[in-house]
Amino acid sequence: MNRCFHGSCITRDSPCDDGLPCTVNEEPCQALGAGCSAEPDQNCNAACTNDAQCATHEKCTIGKCVSGQCQLSAKLCEDGNPCTIAYCSAATGQCVSQADPSCQSNGCTTNAQGVVAGCPASNPCVTYACAQNNCVTLAEVCNDLNPCTVDACDVATGTCTYTAIPNCAGCAVDKDCEDFSPCTVDRCTTATGQCEHAYLANCEVCTVATSLYICNDFDDCTLDLCGSDGLCAHIPSGTEECAVDFCSTDVDCVSGSTCAVGRCDSVTGICAFSPVYCRDGSACTKDGYDVCVEGVGCVEIPDLTCGGGAACSANQPDACKVDNKCVTAACVAGKCQATLKSCNDGDPCTFDACDGTTGTCIHEEAPPGQCPGTAGCTSDAQCLANSCQIGQCIGGMCVTHDKVCNDYLSCTVGDACDQLKEGCYFDLKYGCLGCSGDPDCDDGDVCTQDVCLGPGVCSNQPSGQPGCN
To answer: Is the peptide bond before 466 cis (omega within 30 degrees of 0)?
Structure first.
């Protein structure tokens, strides 16, 4: 608020208090005319005598006074229709229902030739199996057994495409030679970069006629089917005695962690979770599982050695790229090189640091009697940063950088950082059904091909690009 005092304007933060015991009031008051804001305190147990005392500003949060204490809960919406998604509208507080495109109708059949009828037309890269009159989604698997091509299914035509990888040296490990056949042993001859597929004696691929004994996994809780590629599929039966929480889209597989990606297996209907492997394709930044920070996502950590001077060329602009402006990285004479900006002012009584977002040096005076000297930092713990920054000790100097927030979920929007919210926040996209395009399937790894196969179904397969073993 502004006040005129003896001819001068005095500005003070407006106090933010809505008087409701079950809201968390943010201070100072938000700028740009937004006013004060308050969010529900989900752990509220304030004393009360009636429900009105447990109210919040969220229309989809219900406050109740139970045994003299407030309890908050989300408003649940259910319309009894298995083929719609019901949710509470944040704008009105009313329940809203919309069609679920992943819902599969019952009544399908399979003839003697294995042809499925009665399932809805969809993405041509998705086929169906019929299990107990229910349609089960099966993604098309494209593999030409060549480690030097990127294999994909063209969603426009349903045909497989195999794109040559420039400068590919062939396979590096046995996994590069996977042909998805139960009747072969796949090996990589590293000396030549060629794949070998040794056939197993007496092995049979399945057919509709032979699936009853070839595909029998002796598990009463699975339906054993044979796919058109001759491979067995074991689909949970879903009977009461075998009840598990099945998924239909990736939305059902949210892990609650920014460092784990959940995907729904379209064959088994079971969620599979994998840790986020951070890799941006630059030799001058560190890769790995430990580069992911819980609550933030992948964090760029400069590597001043650039992987020991990794090879690069002029037509690879991102091979040595570093977004941190305190680090200069470039391709020099065919090798990546990186240098750290010096911010040492020679004063033993200042803390010297560099702002990686702007590239400016920072010199903060130390408290009396606590001069740090000129030796510099030795660990990240010595590099103080606010809730929206990462503090890193690089080459003996503290470097801060703004957090880039990403939870790798297709149903959150506005992934950003706010000091008032004490870090990264991820807002739920109401009514979201999962991915609607390939960018929604980002998994933090530049070496995977991120594809949205259909509403809510992502695929993250190795891309096979150079340097992505």
So the answer is: no
In a domain, 145, yes or no: no
Question: What backbone torsions phi and psi does residue 307 show, to the nearest 5 degrees?
Answer: 65, 30
**Mean local confidence (pLDDT), 73-88:** 67
361: phi then psi, degrees, rounded to nearest 5? -80, 145
Longest dimension (CA), the chain: 99
Give bridge partners of residue 394 from the DSSP assignment. 397
Instruction: Specify the number of domains making up the chain.
Output: 2
Q: Is residue 149 included in any domain, yes or no?
A: no
Token readout for 181 is 């056949």
Structure tokens at 437: 């395009």
**What does the radius of gyration of the chain's CA atoms come to, in whole angstroms?**
28
At residue 335, the 3 state secondary structure works out as strand
Structure tokens at 283: 């030799």
* Paired strand residues for 151: 162
Neighbouring C-beta atoms of residue 95, cutoff 10 Å = 15
Residues 6+ apart with CB under 8 A from 249: 102, 264, 433, 434, 455, 456, 457
Q: What is the pLDDT of residue 7?
A: 42
Q: Which of 74, 96, 117 represents a domain boundary (last residue)?
A: 74
Tokens at residue 190, please? Answer: 């590293």
Full domain range(s) for residue 351? 300-402
Q: Residue 103's CB: how many other CB atoms inside 10 A?
A: 14
Q: For strands 389-394 and 397-402, give the pairing.
A: antiparallel
Do 435 and 451 form a contact (C-beta atoms < 8 A)?
no
Domain edge (last residue) among 45, 74, 103: 74
3-state secondary structure of 288: strand
DSSP conformation class of 327: E
Instruction: Examine residue 372 and state whether it is found in any structural domain, yes or no.
Output: yes
**Pairwise CA distance, residues 296 & 350, whole Å:** 30
First to last CA, the chain: 58
Domain assignment of residue 66, yes or no: yes
Q: What is the DSSP letter of 372?
A: -
Cα gap 432→100, rounded to integer Å: 10
Pinpoint the alpha helices (H) of 4-85. Answer: none
pLDDT for position 85: 64
Residue of higher predicted confidence among 186 and 228: 186
| Closest listed residue to residue 424, CA positions, set 402, 447, 444 | 402
227, 231, 236, 239 alpha-carbon torsion, rounded to 10°: 60
Give 6's contacts (C-beta < 8 A, 6+ positions apart). Answer: none
CA dihedral 441, 447, 449, 455 (to 10 degrees): -10
The yes-or-no verdict on residue 31 having pLDDT over 50 is no
Whose tokens are 């926040």? That residue is 425
Among 14, 76, 84, 23, CA closest to 54: 23
